[in-house]
Amino acid sequence: MAAIQNRYEFVIFFDVENGNPNGDPDAGNMPRIDPETGYGLVTDVCLKRKIRNYVETVKEADPGYRIYVKDNVPLNCSDAEACAYVGVDPAKLKEAKKKDANLDMKIRDFMCSNFFDIRTFGAVMTTFVKGALNCGQVRGPVQLGFARSVDPILPQEVTITRVAITTEADAEKKGTEMGRKYIVPYALYRCEGYISANLARKTTGFSEEDLELLWQAILNMFELDHSAARGKMSVRELIVFRHDSELGNAPAYKLFDLVKAQRNGDVVAPRAFTDYQLSVDEENLPSGVTCIRMG
């Protein structure tokens, strides 16, 4: 499959209702928040996890669409597969690289062709400091920033009760246990992303088929990952800017500035997506850039 030939930028709008979109373990799992402004945050790592999970679910064991960063699978197990492919003992990889100047490239190409998330996001495949099993680093063409809420959020702490007591000793002392969970009543988040056709061509081979799967995964990344803790989360719209060239026809910030999410004037506390209006100033699109709206 040939690598993509066009640069892209994109904006994702997703919302949460009565849930915790991305808890902060350093703050008792409260929803992440910018303490200076009160805007909610969702990390790029969180969103990439959802995309990986979706691709793994829909593709399962299809060749070329395995997932490198996944639960309960040590990274060096996958790294060892690359060594077996090139016929090198993982314990002697460092010495083998001195003898074969193209070994790094062979290993990189094997990992990119087999693992969708490496081909897409890149990966650090240095699982041993001494380099005994070092498959190098790959810079992926697709990058996401942190998502930020359109308006400040006010997380709420909800007290809950638990009747299933943990131990017999505790059951003799009490009939219920108290707990708590954090929710955001409602918030609309905006995330911006970038796709480099230049990196796709030079490094990972990220293809048009991969691109279509990525759009599909973004639009559906919460649909196969619902949980009570996260409440109701949905991708509301995906706005894609396609350049006519590999290196792009306009700076990314100029395209992002064309996208606006504004709260309706009569809304004091947003509680639904209909409380907002999304718009793209397509009349001022730079020459050589096309806007595609999905969702």
**Beta-strand residue fraction:** 25-35%
Cα radius of gyration in angstroms: 23 Å
Low-confidence stretches: none
What number is the mean pLDDT?
91
For the secondary structure, the number of strands is 14
How would you classify the helix and strand content by structural class? alpha+beta
Helix run count: 9
Q: What is the terminal separation in angstroms?
A: 27 Å
As a percent range, the share of helical residues equals 25-40%
Morphology:
flat
- Major sheet characteristics: 8 strands, antiparallel
Order of helices and strands: EEEEHHHHHEEEEEHEHHEHEEE
Task: Describe the protein.
The protein has 295 residues and is an alpha+beta fold. Helix content is 28%, strand content 32%. The strands form 4 sheets. Strands 1, 4, 7, 8, 9, 10, 11 and 14 form an 8-stranded antiparallel β-sheet that branches. The chain starts with 7 loop residues before the first strand and ends with a strand.
